[in-house]
Amino acid sequence: MSDVLPTVPPDASDSLAVLEKSRSTAETFGIPLAVLLEITHRCPLQCPYCSNPVELDRSGKELTTDEWKKVLSELAEIGVLQVHFSGGEPTARKDLVELVKHASDVGLYTNLITSAVLLTRERLSELADAGLCHVQISFQGVEEGLADRVAGYKNGHRKKLEVAKWTRELELPLTVNAVMHRQNLHQLPDIIQMSVDLDADRLEVANVQYYGWALKNRAALMPTVAQLDECTRLVEEARERLKGTLAIDYVVPDYYALRPKKCMGGWGRQFFNISPAGKVLPCHAAESITGLDFESVRSNHSIAWIWQNSDAFNRYRGTGWMKEPCKSCEFREIDFGGCR
């Protein structure tokens, strides 16, 4: 199956017309490229760096199957290219195959972001038959004892390796997502080799970003400068050595970046998020920003209207919220003040 996406939807002019029709005085931001669908906050793992909100949406508040199908149809109508089924653990939803099938039927590229520990080969095969385009599996390390301790799930690492093998047997593209922190950075060379051995298309070396539970556990997770420097060196060397074999994405912690993260350069302008209970968010951590009231797909407003006209999205996007020194900074429309 191809992992190559078109740069614009074939009916882009029609999609823009749908958005333009919903527009009043708000700026037109064009077509969002991708949407992160957090279809549940339920998860069997207990990762200390989880970026989900500390106050999770309970399962009784989750959107129903029909509500998620309506969301998927609306996203396709406005020209969204990709949907990423996430959580929590998306495979905890019994209707996942049905949702993937509907997404495929309306023309959306589908990616499953999973811990993999709840998957069987039969269910993964059903997802592939339903039109699933890509699988991303999170790994907590390469050594079973450490990986299972970090995830809080016995025999989880062994299961992840098994599901990764099934993924390639079913000819689905595979991304290894390795969340890196002080406890496992020493395993990075082996994680890179594991990704090659698993025949992964891509490795995401994702240093922990400190929101949600990760912020509460920052003292135990934050790497030293020396650790991060070594991590950067290893990634650069591996990128050169494995060019054409394994694509490697690299995300450093906000605290060590040279400039504030241009978070809203994508989130809220090209991407957005829908929570398990249906809140439409400019990024997955947006609810931590005080003073913003987010619309729900259960409201009377369409997703197109929320994207274009909602007060929260437009206040999130601009520079009007900034205080000094950001307000007068020459980079204010380059990095937009970083993650808020």
Major sheet attributes: 9 strands, mixed
- Average residue-wise pLDDT: 87
What's the CATH H-level superfamily name?
Answer: Aldolase class I
Q: List the domain count as a whole number.
A: 1
Structural class: alpha/beta
Q: Quick one: how many beta strands?
A: 9
Beta-strand residue percentage: 5-15%
Tell me the strand order in the biggest sheet.
Answer: 7-6-5-4-3-2-1-8-9
Tell me the distance between the termini. 38 Å
The CATH architecture designation is Alpha-Beta Barrel
H-E string: HEHEHEHEHHEHEHHHEEEHH
* Helical amount: 25-40%
Q: What shape does the CA trace take?
A: globular
CATH secondary-structure class: Alpha Beta
Compute the number of helices.
12
Q: What integer value in Å does the Rg equal?
A: 20 Å
CATH names the topology as TIM Barrel
Low-confidence stretches: 1-10
Question: Could you characterize the architecture of this molecule?
Answer:
The model is unreliable at 1-10 (pLDDT under 50). The two termini are 38 Å apart. This protein has helices at 12-21, 65-77, 96-105, 121-130, 144-151, 156-169, 188-197, 212-216, 218-221, 225-241, 303-309, 311-317; strands spanning 34-38, 82-86, 109-114, 134-139, 174-180, 202-207, 247-251, 271-274, 280-281. It is 34% helix and 14% strand. The chain has a single domain, classed as Aldolase class I (TIM Barrel). The longest helix is centred in the C-terminal third of the chain and has 17 residues, at 225-241. The radius of gyration is 20 Å and the shape is globular. A nine-stranded mixed sheet has the order 7-6-5-4-3-2-1-8-9, with helices on one face. It has twelve helices and nine strands.
